[in-house]
Amino acid sequence: MDEKIKILLAEDDTNLGMLLKEYLRAKGFETILCEDGEIAYETFLNEPFDICIFDVMMPKKDGFTLAKEVRQINSEIPIIFLTAKSMKEDVLEGFKLGADDYMSKPFSMEELLLRIEAVLRRSTGLKPEDEQEIFKIGKLTFNSKKQTLFDGEEEQKLTTKESELLRLLCLNVNKVLERNYALKNIWADDNYFNARSMDVYITKLRKHLKKDPSVEIINVHGKGYKLIL
User: Fold this and answer.
1) Which UniProt keywords apply (predicted)?
2) Angle at 56 between CA 53 and CA 61, to 5 degrees
3) In whole angstroms, what is the distance from residue 136 CA to residue 18 CA?
4) Helices 160-171 and 192-209 meet at what angle, rounded to 10?
5) pLDDT per residue over 29-64, tens digit each?
6) Strand (E) positions, 49-133?
């Protein structure tokens, strides 16, 4: 996409709000943070957004009230609720208001990202910025849809897991791809056996990328991997 997907984030916990904003921005989303429901509503009136993330318990205007007012203006915009509550009636209230998803605190940043991407895929054709299919990796061209790696002369067919993992590395080029995020995104579980499996696929990808010596995948101890171009 030419323009970044824009998120309206309403969260009155200053520390959590800033953490979420910086994380989402790092993942390619334009994110506007509001500290209460009233400010969030005024911001929504004055700027276009693609998705909303509202904390339920906020001063001045709670997340449920905010969602009702937002939906009166735009009945289609996706809304994800964040809450410290886990009571069944609160969850049901959120879905009655047309919530697209509901997350109870505490939650992982990686899980929130996956939920956002899933909601966007289900919404009216909007997709995250990372729907890119063709990647230039040094002298190599990677087609994630066709699962091929082309060096200008020979085309190498990749397995599905190799292609999915290489795509995540490309989307985070020169940045750390967190192990847990990759495991949950591709294997749906970050258990020990899947982690060992991912290590094997990293080794395979390194062999495929040897055709360009300037390209490498490095281990970042305790964090994950980084594709260096």
Assistant:
1) DNA-binding, Phosphoprotein, Two-component regulatory system
2) 100
3) 33
4) 80
5) 999 999 999 999 999 999 999 999 999 889 889 888
6) 51-55, 79-83, 101-104
**Interhelix angle for 37-46 vs 63-73, to 10°?**
20
Torsion on CA atoms 111, 13, 222, 117, rounded to nearest 10: 20
CA distance 227 to 3: 25
Distance of alpha carbon 147 from alpha carbon 59, whole angstroms: 49
Cα(129)–Cα(138) distance, rounded to whole angstroms?
22
- Neighbouring CB atoms inside 10 A of 50's CB total 19
Assigned token pair, 74:
């735009």
Q: What are residue 30's DSSP bridge partners?
A: 6
Q: Which two tokens stand for residue 25?
A: 């921005």
